[in-house]
Specification:
This protein is of the alpha/beta class. Helices cover about 45% and strands about 15% of the residues. Strands 3-4-2-5-1-6-7-8 form an 8-stranded mixed β-sheet, sandwiched between helices.
């Protein structure tokens, strides 16, 4: 059964979509089958994986609101073993339309259950807000990966998200665990980045991942070409960092599996 990881942070601009795209692509280099589910109405994950939003006929809106099978919405990307369930602008309305649905928090979980055996990993990109789409993404997940920009208010933002995760565990998904806190846009030349890393590590300890994602021009350019960084510039620091992240997540999964046996 495939593992489902939701990428979440209620703050925008922290590298959430960049992480969803590039972690998924990096996992594929290990010969794993990976599906990216774009649950953000901005559809940046969709375009960042090379899909033209104007050509999309089925999307996560038709899956969540119209009851269509998730399998019918999935589209292959140019990278082997990487697929995407795209978003479009209609998904913005889903936040309101979900309110009156039965078991509204479990809609995505039930759709994902139909296809998760077909993939090794399912990566869900969630909106930069705590709304019903984000809640659906967290209820559907086995774990949550939290990207954190190296800035002054980082610790405060993470604390708010962790409060939300506690409520999700209590009410909807008791097995949800934290995959890790991922430092993004890290600049080793600044005292601020080093201080944020130190503060987070002191507070959250081993929940902070060893891998850090640097500020990198090539990484910022890649989405405008509709490519993951390993296709756009495989030798860049951004590409190496996301490959390291994928390796760390796979290693942690092996450790967890060993502890369960």
């Amino acid at each position: 059964m495939g593992k489902v990881i939701t990428i979440a942070n209620q703050k925008g601009g922290v590298g959430k979509t960049t992480t969803a795209i590039n972690l998924a692509a990096s996992l594929c280099t290990a010969d794993l089958r990976v599906l990216v589910i774009d649950c953000d109405a901005q559809a940046n994950c969709t375009s960042g994986l090379g899909l033209n939003r104007q050509d999309i006929r089925r999307s996560m809106y038709t899956v969540l609101i119209m009851g269509e099978s998730l399998d019918k919405a999935i589209i292959a990307t140019e990278m082997d073993n990487l697929w995407v369930a795209p978003s479009d602008k209609n998904l913005a309305g889903a936040i309101i339309e979900l309110i009156d649905m039965e078991r509204r928090e479990y809609v995505l979980r039930e759709r994902v259950a139909e296809i998760r055996d077909q993939y090794d990993y399912v990566i869900i990109d969630s909106p930069p807000a705590i709304n019903l789409l984000t809640i659906n993404a967290l209820v559907a997940a086995d774990s949550v990966l939290i990207p954190i920009q190296c800035e002054y208010f980082a610790l405060e933002g993470v604390s708010e998200l962790l409060d939300t995760l506690i409520r999700i565990r209590r009410g909807f998904n008791p097995d949800l665990r934290i995959e890790g806190l991922l430092l993004t846009m890290y600049d080793e030349r600044t005292n601020l980045s080093r201080q944020v890393q130190e503060d987070l590590t002191n507070f959250f300890r081993d929940q902070v991942l060893r891998t850090v994602i640097p500020r990198n021009v090539r990484l910022a350019e890649a989405p405008s070409f509709g490519k993951p960084i390993i296709l756009y510039d495989a030798r860049s620091r951004g590409a190496n960092s996301y490959l390291s992240l994928a390796k760390e997540i796979l290693e942690n999964e092996k450790k967890s599996a060993g502890q369960r046996t």
